[in-house]
Fold these 2 entries.
Entry 1:
Amino acid sequence: MTDTTQTPALSALGRFKQSPFAKFEFVAGATLTALLTLLVLFSGVLFPGGGAEVNLLARLAEPFQSWAHPLGTDPLGRDILARIVHGGRISLIVGLLSALGSVILGTVIGLYAGYYRGFLDTFVMRFADVQLALPFILLAITVIAIVGPGVDRIIILMIVSQWVQYARLVRGSVLSLRQREFVQAAVSYGLPNWRIIFRHILPNAMGPLIILLTLNVANNILLESSLTFLGLGADPQTPSWGGMLSEGRSYVQTAWWITVFPGVAIMLTVLGLNLLGDWLRDELDPLGKTR
Amino acid sequence: MSFRHPFPARNVLRSAVLLSCLALAAPAFAQDRTLTVGQNRDPQNLDPIDTFRLSWGSIGSNVFDGLVFRDEDLEIQPGLATDWEFLDDDTRIRFHLRDGVEFHNGEPFNADAVKYTFDRLLGEEGLKGPQRSNYTSIREVVVVDERTVDFLMERPDPVLITKLAGYGAMIVPPKYIEEVGEEAFDMKPVGTGPFQVTEYIPTVGVKLAKFDNYWNGEAKVDAVNIRFIPEDATRIAELLSGGVDISMNIPSPSVETIEQNPNVNLLAVDGPTVVLTRFDTSKGITADPRVRKAIAMAVDRDTIVQALLGGLANPISSAQSAKSFGNDTALEPYPFDPEGAKALLAEAGVEPGTEITLDMPSNDESFREVAQVIAAFLGQVGLNVNIRNHERSVYFDDIIENGKTGEMYYFGWGGWTFDFDNTAYLLYHSGERNNPYIEDEKLDTLLDQQRETYDREVREGALQEVARYAHEQALDLPLYNLSTIYGVSNRVEGFVPAPDERARYMDVTVK
């Protein structure tokens, strides 16, 4: 079965010459992200103990002194390197799941609202305005005070408060795409609505969506760290970057390595994802045309 | 008495150089000597009967006096009363009042002020605050003459004299309160102490100025500027950079930072605060005393104190410090014995790998480390501990009060009277808001008994029996008694650390 219209945006991939900086962005971003993903995937193999073994005799060991603890140990004598690698799990799980959840929820609602308009559109978009005005950290602190802490709750909270950005973005794209000739043509051919939405509208709204997604993953990794830093995230025994920062705070002047290394891990991860997102934007929208 | 080691200055030469630099600059501000103090919390209300916070103690103890006064060795000394006697089978206590004392506003201190203070505390106004319940053993205060008052007792109260040094019994000026009203008094109180409040800005700080007509000598600094700095790291950074001269409430993880700085000393003194993990004795595996004993045997308290708390705490066998009345020195904590713990757990039918939950408030940095070490110790005997954090007020007002904790939960308490009655009653007497699980007739009887007599031996016996019974049943796991730690700049001289956090600044000088 063939379709009579083409999807212009995606074919832009690879059509334009890449500038040297774009190449650098891609290489650096992809390397960092791939490295992190690999480390996290194999964290169980690399450090089977999960960085949880307490050894008070080896507390606050300095970094770069021994192969047993290459990045030193924390106040409870746990290996910093093992904890960073394992801590990446929480960061990645929270970053990916929350972004994925909000992109799916937001896209479905945005497509529906933009395509069918009507009461639901008005209602959802006003609701979105209200929600965008609520600061996330405040919302998180309040909700966690009521339902108790936990990683699962943080992910759900992030989805609940962030689908809005995707819904607005998708709805905007749908509104302009509806007027384009290839959609009008599809309508006049009598194609069913679901087919027009998923075959003709959604692929053309994908570009900005993917860019927002990469930035959102990075942003949520930072948010998770902040919440854990505030003591509202995971069980303190479960290594996480935010938690490590928080625990090392009192030791900054005597044992810098407890906070600096997880800080660097957060920075490199977010940097990698942002570079990748930047590169993708240039690729998907080389003329900077997206609304 | 057990004041511990003010750490010697590391580098005498460097201090000398610094001092000479300061000496050059000194004449510019010699006229106005101000001591700056950083403390972590704002009491939110300066009226003595409206608060029970330690943060009030380090302000109010410089502004107010009571009939008696407890010194830094926890001995009761005459304050605004010169002496007292027990009359009519101990149902009447007569106080002779000091002559020539005046309030900061010039009002004279006399028997009427004492009567007014206690009428206010025990009446309408007192009902609004938390202090009244400590003093309900007093039926009435009667003025005998200008310099004599009688306390008529409702029932015997063995801790009364100590409590007269407490917050609620601070003597307040009748005329001033009538003039300005209760709300103004909350913000700008007047007492008879060595300093008067000049300015109180909530969440920012309190400014005190020397009171020239103080009855008991003269303060050595002209002003004290107390700043509220809730963030530990910020408060310590201010101390190290010279922004504050004395920093209170030093958390144990920061001890090393301060020890390494040559311009700052660490002063530690045994405090009133005890830290324990309590058990849900009503359900789950911890309803079985064998399991509770096993947990107590699996945790090595000495290691926690030495390695994590830098030795600035003492292991305890009951929920009180060594200085507390009712402490039984013969009572030993359960010995560290992981093998014995495993055997007990097996006997109680607890499978290795059983999960239990330990609840704690999220902002306690020092206990967060301790909790993880406890979890590691319990992991070695086959109990997997999940640690759950809660926002502080949620933790105390909901999780504990409504019995929503896991098998174990954190509890810390500073029994400021240094009398086990204060802590034991709220931990073990049925129906207390901090005791969601324990209902035990024997404990109720013992605790009520010791509240009805002035006989020290009977009371001590009953309180020690409470401690022994709690230990035998392993009702909780008493961990350690925290030292009160102050960080003090080299510029400061004459500061004596108070075990009860009621820091007094009268004899302090700043170079």
Note: Confidence is low (pLDDT under 50) at residues 1-16 of chain A.
Entry 2:
Amino acid sequence: MLKTIFKRLLQLIPILFLVSTIIFVITRMIPGDPAATMLGPQAPVDAVEQLREELGLNKSIGEQYLIYLKDIIKGDFGRSYQYGQSVTSLLFERFPNTLLLSIVSLFLALIIGIPIGIISATKHYSIFDYVSMIIALIGVSMPIFWLGLMLVLIFSVNLQWLPSIGMGSLQNGLWDFISHLILPSVALATIPAATFARVTRSSMLDVVKEDYIKSLRSKGIKEKSVIWKHALKNALPPIVTVIGLQTSSLLSGAILTETIFSWPGLGRLIVDAIQNRDYMLIQGAVLLIAFIFVFINLIVDITYLYINPKINYDGKGGDK
Amino acid sequence: MKNIKRNIALLLVLVFSLTLIAGCGDPDKKGGDTTGNGGSKGVKDPTTVAEEDKFGGVLKIALSSTPKNLDPILYTGVYESNIISNVCDTIVNYSQDLSEIVPNLATEWTSNEAGTEYTFKLRNDVYFQKGKYQDGRQMTAEDIKYSLERSAKESSLNRLGMLEKIEVINEFEVKAYLNEPNAAFLTALTDAGNSIIPKEEVEGHGDKFGFNLAGTGPFALEEFKIDQEAILKRNDKYWAQKPYLDGITFKFITDRNQMTNALRTREIDIATDLGGESVKIVKDDKNLKLQEVPGLHVAYLYMNLMEGPTADKKVREAIIRAVDIDEMVKGIYQYDEAQRAYLALPPGSWGYDESLEDLVPSYDPELAKKLLKEAGYEDGFSLNIYTSDAPARVKMATILQGYLKENLNIDLKINTAEWGTFSEIASKGKADIYGMSWTWYPDPFFFLNKMFHSSEIGALGNGQGFNNPEVDKLLDDALKITDQEERAKLYKEALKIITESYARIDYSNEKVIYGFSPAVEGFQMRADQKKIFVSEDINVWLND
């Protein structure tokens, strides 16, 4: 198993190299001169020229690419043009905020989605099953930005229970911190929660029909134990896959959610960087996200190994 | 049985959905007191509030973009200046109505005959806010020299390029030498980019000075969190008067809907840059106040003067006459967020000349057709218009497309791009027509020289290649004299030639529109969008 993990880690290197090259090419292909964009419509021509020189934009693309690669290997992502700060420090200032939002949302989605899926499967064709599955269907098809706006209208503007924008600070007390987190994380958790509920239900339904469940029941083992211990364990692999997929897409969802709730995370930073042609910042941020993506996939694969040792990524023996 | 259950389930879901939809309704119609722990109930009659009761409270104001760098010489956006100008002072300012330059850190000034030397007398009661590298020392002539020369040499937008050097005459008197006569010098000095700052802090903090900005203004910067907020605290030693407010928090909210929502929930006290439906929402909410002033703003369509059919003046006149500009403006600004424009200068500028408005060709489709025929384009042609992807520009292009097709059989292809892409195409003269807007200081120099002087061809201001030696000369001459009335005369002459050249359609002056919670007292809106909370005449306070 360790060997597999190590191998997968090695695979990260070519992937990230490829990603960094693609990002470099794409950012250069977006039309618009970063120097002119940054300085705005009223910039004198000589000021724009001077900035181009400072930023190294006068060098050939090949030269720029070599410098970029060399810096990345050194772990230096350059300086953001617009903020005048190192990209690394900007990313690490913001990343924890996105991570917090994503983890809370994932947690919410798990504790809501999976139990609902299990109960729906065990109480098949009950009212609970119908209601929760229809809501789940609405949930997966709900655009996040619409849901976010509705949540703000209901809970902030009309009821005035929760703040509508920004991130709270622990310095202002625990409630300030939590209250700012509720609406964005609920908005972000909706799609994954609904997905988890649907997948858990169908996976569980498949499992409870199996003969060994019947035999467990016939042995007189408690229903609770049959469902939560035996059935759930065997229903897990598809659920874990979906958790992995949803975790990755939480990141893209976070970008929208952050925009709606003025949450100071990576998403807003990237959108702003693209609008302002902040090459260095775009490159650094996309690389970071690519890394997280690949990393989550790695974790999912490792989790498979753990929950189902029969899976073998080396392709030697076992039923792949 | 199954069916009954399914029906019950559907019913429950329906109820759930209705609850959601109810959230979209107008909260005011629900009656009761849903919209306001603030509301108007806590507000007292401002005339009866005792002086000492006006002190206290933190005002929260939202800016519609994220400031990036608060170092005066490094800022390039618009929004940074709002924060900088509350922390720092400039030596002169524009008066509240923007008609003249008034004293600030400098009490009086004189210039020599040639307009190349300016002598300023300074206040002797001004102190810097305490920082890490100085303990709130007095501001002197040396600081003026340091700050302005730093800007002249290092400003990323070249805001003080005309300044050669500053000479310290005595502790409270300086003399500025210009490279050549430049009447826009005083206006340039009003820019937050030319704020007076303490050398110790700049050098001590280095790259991080933007996060540790210090100056002589009414509020001191306590914390600047990129993408979130800038927190300012009262400067008790402010020279003009003691601020009523304990502090100001600038919140950065890029979406108008979010901003209006935050205003309704009292998470902010002032929402700036309202437009579109947000204007209506604030207007309709009886717990909020809406205020507007005409902005120093012109939105225009600039036609290519160097190549293509629009290089022909007759074609340009035909295009102008084919568009009912009044109707177009009504169509673009459904919530009355702008007034119809005529000239390339906003009416708020002191170079504006109402008598020139008649020179703008009026709507006359028949004459337009005839002109196009005379120009040899009887069957029409196709043109490309470029605009940014801002909703107001896209709407404008669509309306224009209708008029040109209907009246002149011109096929207008609409190309929208986000700002970076757009500005590159427009400044290189690659567009047949481009639509954008211009907003800057009240001095006509910042409109006319930047958009019509031949030296600006290739920059975004004059991307379409306006080139008229007579205009160049008038604009140059207007810079060489310092008397504002004399200058205005020259600018009006230039503006006349510009208007008669039919180079553009100047269609709207957008208004500056803010929403306020009723608690805000004493705030005065300005056409230049400067947000002044405390000065010699202004002291904003919170009535709650």
Note: The first helix of chain A runs from residue 2 to 29.
